[in-house]
Amino acid sequence: MTARRTASALALFLSLVSSAAAADPPEDPGLSDACLHAVRFVDERQGWAVGDRGVIWHSDNGGTSWERQTSGTVCALHALCFAGDKTGWIVGGQGLPYSPASSGLVLATRDGGLRWEPVSWQQFPRLLGVQFVNGKSGWAWGESSEFFPTGLFASETAGQKWVPAAGPPARGWMAGLFPSAEQGVLGGPAGASALVSQRALRGVKPGALGAVGVRAMTASDDGTCWAVGDGGTVLRSDTQGASWALSGGPFSTAHRLLFDWRGVHARGPSVWVVGRPGSVVLYSPDSGASWQPRFTGQNLPLESIWFQDARRGWAVGALGTILATEDGGASWRVQRGGGERAAVLAVHGDALSAPLLTHARLANDQGYLAVDLAMVRPPDG
After folding, report:
1. How far is Cα 67 from Cα 76, in angstroms, rounded to an integer?
2. Max Cα–Cα distance, the chain, nearest Å
């Protein structure tokens, strides 16, 4: 009897070991939680989101489910674009060890996003944005360096080779908009702006867009340009970026300063803006004549927003969060999210030393998972 029980227990143990060995390894929480910086859909079903640690998430059912694709890199991926439904590009980069310099990366797909392969690597500094106007002609922008002082690059070879743009040196660019292969506008730190004409920077102007950083740009169907940035800044241009004016909003000046906008997208007269905190999506139904706050139901910062049409849209951000709407942003639901790891760990000597203000801002206001650890010494005696 004992021998049979021992044999049965051994068989069960071997079965469990075999099953565990055959099972897929658990998902790295560092990948699941990686912040997402950009999202794009090419139709109502096929979409991608990219972010830190080389993460690429793909959906073929309108975001109902997302699967991680292999990127072959651990670099942060900051932006993506498509020219048609088969050809696309992703850009990013990483800092170099023991150096303030960085290196850039361009990935490309020609099979509708089934595979992403590097086409340009370490030719230039870290890239933060990309836009192709057709299958061959495109622009990429990001950090500047001693060898690439303008921080802007052009390609006529579908991203295989990049040529640095001529022009005066700049501090780098965080936002760009290119309606054609020859003309565009850039925005960057401390409100810097520049026009691009004949593949060269023209009139780099520090502070032209205000004193805060400009983080994202987009254009409406009628050619109206929009730029958003820190301190609740929303700018509008009716001159293809030659001049900008502040656009109003539903918040007072004091309340507007509580927001740092990170993403903007427009479809027809509708404009949507997202940022930090991610609890609010700023929405205009009439090209900026009026603005309304739309609430997402979550506080995690949002970095990018994309609408496939006037009703279906997605927003992505911190901890791998992907939100979706089917009513033009009136309501939002979470399609995927990470949050498996603590984003904040506070270690202190006693309960009175707990950083309550920090926890309130990061955990309550912005939705990050925070852990508080008090190292309390037992009483003497």
Report:
1. 18
2. 90
Contacts 24+ apart (CB under 8 A), 325-331: 328/270, 328/283, 329/272, 329/281, 329/283, 329/294, 330/294
For residue 240, give the amino acid letter. Q
Sign of CA dihedral 149, 153, 159, 162: negative
Q: How many CB atoms lie within 10 A of CB 200?
A: 16
> If DSSP codes are grouped into helix, strand and coil, which group holds residue 68?
strand
pLDDT in tens, 316-363: 999 999 999 999 999 999 999 866 566 666 666 655 566 766 655 665
**From the centroid of its chain, how far is CA 309?**
20
Give me the DSSP letters along 230-282.
Answer: GGGEEEEESSTTSS-EE---SS-HHHHTT-EEEEEEEETTEEEEEEESTTEEE
Confirm if 304 and 316 have CB atoms less than 8 A apart: yes
Three-state DSSP class for residue 360: helix
pLDDT in tens, 100-156: 889 999 999 999 999 999 997 667 899 999 999 999 999 999 999 999 999 999 999
Mean pLDDT for 226-244 is 92
Model-level pTM?
0.84
190 phi-psi bin (left φ>0, alpha ψ -120 to 50, beta other): left
Residues 6+ apart with CB under 8 A from 154: 137, 138, 139, 162, 163, 165, 199
Contact 265, 312 (CB under 8 A): no
